Amino acid sequence: MPLEVKEMIVPFYGQCIRISNGKIAAEIAVDKGPRIFSFGEENGENLFCSVQGDTSKKEEFHYYGGHRVSLALGENQIFYPDNDPVIYKVSPSGASFIPPCRENGLQIAMEIQMDEVMADMMVIHSVTNTSKERICTAVWSATMLNTGGIEILPQNKESGDLAELPDQVLAFWPGSRMKDPRLSFGEQDMYIFVSAEKSEKKDLTFGINNTSGWAAYVRENHIFVKRYVHNAQGCYPNHNCSFRTTVSDEFLEMGSYSPLYWIEPGETIRHVENFSLFSSSTRLETIDDSHVKMFLDSMQ
User: Fold this and answer.
1) Which residue, among 84, 46, 85, 87, has the nearest Cα to 67 in the 3D structure?
2) What pairs with residue 116 in β-bridges?
3) By C-alpha distance, which of 278, 268, 272, 267 is closest to 256?
4) Computed over its alpha carbons, how large is the radius of gyration of the chain?
5) Is-contact 110 157, C-beta < 8 A?
6) What pLDDT score does 12 carry?
7) pTM, whole model, 2 decimals?
8) Closest by alpha carbon to 276, among 223, 205, 218?
9) 136 closest CA partner among 267, 33, 245
10) What topology does CATH give the domain 4-297?
């Protein structure tokens, strides 16, 4: 079916844009955000975590859930409040969304382009420097998903001359434990696994230099895959991590970063992610490298 883009009203989120192609659908809040608060199969379950708490204080950041775009200024993660209405423009391939400009002169934007046939969606995040000063920043895009699944991250595998050098970074945020039972490593050093099925009181947050540029989340018979380009020559925030994940009792968050850039006045940087959704008639019952590889290969 042709791509459908329409306006709608959703309780709590208010005015929204719905983009669908008959296979997948995404719903984006424009009364506040922009937030992709819903993503999944057409008329199916929302895979994204939706948080609908008290949002009366508009000057504070709120976890609405879903997918958002933010910034990493140097080594600092900026949780900008995104509680104001968004300017949006519908296009034949999707829609674009522009929230109010930040106080420091950085203008964030998000554009969504959905494939007309495949269960794929491209999310283009951009930041424009409207100030008169150079600013060092990276784009940080984060996706919050419902618990009850397993996140799969690839381990780096360098070859040739690079095989003699360190190839993996594993950075933990304060309060996270290396022995957290939700975190495990494949016996063949192929994957890192994060379980969002086990309940723990403390959040686990860590980052990796994900040179493969992908991550997957398997929940029941759905597989959500996020892809982006890791720039081997780029310098990333958080000890050079291009990917960050957080798991809590309420959600699992998959986040990726662009490299750090010095943005001149008037310049724009972009960070692109691709979302793909697969379904399987069988479930991933055994969490080890060999079984996971066969399961993922069957999704191709």
Assistant:
1) 46
2) none
3) 272
4) 19
5) no
6) 87
7) 0.93
8) 223
9) 267
10) Beta-galactosidase; Chain A, domain 5 (2.70.98)
Structure-block tokens of residue 118: 């495949």
pLDDT of residue 184: 96
Distance CA 161, CA 234 (A): 20
Cβ atoms 249, 199 nearer than 8 A: yes
CB 212 within 8 A of CB 157: no
> How far is the CA of 107 from the CAs of 35, 54, 67, 110, 159, in angstroms?
16, 26, 18, 10, 40
Angle at 158 between CA 153 and CA 164, to 5 degrees: 130
Residue that wins the pLDDT comparison between 279 and 73: 279
Contact between 272 and 229 under an 8 Å Cβ cutoff? The reply is yes
- Give Cβ neighbours of residue 11 (< 8 Å, ≥ 6 apart): none
In sequence order, what are the beta bridge partners of 24?
Answer: 41
Tens digits of residue pLDDT in 98-120 = 999 988 899 999 999 999 999 99
pLDDT in tens, 166-203: 889 999 999 999 999 999 999 888 999 999 988 888 99
Is residue 58 pLDDT above 70, yes or no? no
Distance CA 261, CA 268 (A): 10
